[in-house]
């Protein structure tokens, strides 16, 4: 498969953009959250726990939510059932 210049541009844009999102959500936001929480009187350990709870919960429930959402999309006709 040969890609033209425009397609390569989109490939590199997507690659760079996904890396940016991963870095922000895994490195920048937890530090920012912890700093703000500590400034408002939350201990460092509790700030970390408060960040981890929704993260773990989201990762736990994600497979179940996807299954429900996929079924709903198929039954409503929003997605090809094949």
Model description:
The longest helix has 35 residues, at 5-39. With 82 residues, the protein is an all-alpha fold. The chain is built from two helices and no strands. Helices cover 82% and strands 0% of the residues.
Layout of strands and helices, then pairs:
Blueprint: H1 5-39, H2 44-75
Helix pairs in contact: 1-2
Would you kindly provide a brief summary of this structure?
It contains 2 helices and no strands. With 82 residues, it is mainly α.
Major sheet details: none
- SSE ordering: HH
Number-wise, the strands total 0
Globally, the shape reads flat
What is the helix tally? 2
Q: Give the structural class.
A: mainly alpha
- Rounded to the nearest angstrom, the radius of gyration is 20 Å
**Terminal residue distance:** 27 Å
How much β-strand is present in the residues? under 5%
Taking all residues together, what is the mean pLDDT?
Answer: 88
Which labels suit this protein?
single chain, 82 residues, mainly alpha, 82% helix
